[in-house]
Amino acid sequence: MRFIRYSTFVLVICSLIIMNSGCGADKDARAVKASGPVEVRVAFWGSPDEVNIVTDTINTWQKSHPEITVKLDHTPYRGYVDKLLTRIAGRSAPDIICTEVDLFVTFQSKDALLDLTPYVKADPDFDLNQFYPEIINRFTVDGKLYAIPRDTAPFACVYYNKKLFDEAGVPYPKDDWNMDDLLDKAQKLTKTDKDGRVTQYGFYAWAWPNFVYAFGGSMVDNVGDPSKCTLDSGGSVAGLKFYSDLINKYKVHPTSTAMTNLAMGVQGMFMTGRLAMFSSGVWETPGLRKMTDLDWDVAMFPKGPGGVRAFGTGGSGYCILKETKHPEAAFEVIKALAGRSGQTVLADTGLAQPAIKDIAQSEHWALDNKPPKNKSMLDEAMNYVVYEPFHPAWREAKELYINPELDMVFSGKRSVEDAVKNFTVKVDGLLKKE
User: What is the CATH number of domain 157-313+388-433?
Assistant: First the structure.
């Protein structure tokens, strides 16, 4: 009897081992038969438009994948990172997280992400060569891929209101324009009342690094492995000065105080004719498309002195956390969100530029007839993107030292030279601690 019980025990154990061995979808399929659908939790942020896109994509996919139940967990961007890091530390994190190209550095530095390289190589339907190589490289560390890109987002769009240009008799900007052209147009499109108050601004930009890059400057000595802040270099200082002069000297760009007093945001100013041009990413498109009586388009961010062209970039992708119990099922969900079907749906909304090149170049994006008409220039723009430094302390450096000093510059209270002198040594200290 003891032998029979022992044999039975061995058979049970062997059965369990077999059930839990193997790889790919078979493993999760067996789990479905044993205990129902596998649950995969996905954390993401985004506007109401983006929430609807993600939800619709998953709902459609679920109809043909009953073996996996996807639970979506939306968090506002402002609290997204802190919430996830807390959940990761408490071992209650989701299976999949959406990450932006800069937030990725934070998550990857915590050693929280699963290497997706084996899953990509084992999937015959998955080809990384379809993606823009720039964002694939951003999500790759030491030859290992930790995120599947969903979209890319060069800060290369200068939106312009055609009606305001026509009224002022100013030619529309073209992709080959430069900083002198930008200033000239901004001055001609800035209007004041009899008391000298600005009633219409010519230009607005939030991405001050674009000016640093355009003037031949840089943020650090090596984006991939930074050890020194270079915002005190000649080109960097020149770019920061030009941006500051748009605000404080030429007064064609609203101050932060003016923006607060107007209390309508950049899009609101643009839509109501109080702002002729503004620089941002293509994600502004869905909101502007809702204004059917607004005639607008985009031009590529202008070249700097000597024809230098470069600008910052965003973009996002999906990662699997190491603690997941269902990596194969999680990878299937990522394919739904960031694969060809998911990116095609995203492209049709105009919210983001697909990370898969041929979709970005297709009738779903560049060749459709929806505004902006010139969005095809974003394909070329990918040749000039510059990512923020890949260092876990960079976000801290910006928040603690760089941004406060530059805020003083852009409000006219400090010179560029004094500001960069105040923060470069401190930033260098943070970069060298890691």
Answer: 3.40.190.10
What residue ranges do the domains of the chain occupy? 32-154+314-385, 157-313+388-433
pTM to 2 decimal places: 0.89
266: CB partners within 8 A, 6+ apart: 204, 206, 259, 275, 278, 280
pLDDT value of residue 264? 82
Reported as a single tens digit per residue, the pLDDT across 324-337 is 999 999 999 999 99
Please tell me the class of the 32-154+314-385 domain. alpha beta
What pLDDT does 49 receive?
A: 83
SS3 69: strand
Q: What is the pLDDT of residues 285-341, one digit of tens each?
A: 989 999 989 999 999 999 999 999 999 999 999 999 999 999 999 999 999 999 999
CB-based burial label for 376 (10 Å; 0-12, 13-18, 19+): middle
* CA 38 vs CA 35, 57, 65, 426: distances in Å: 8, 18, 11, 48
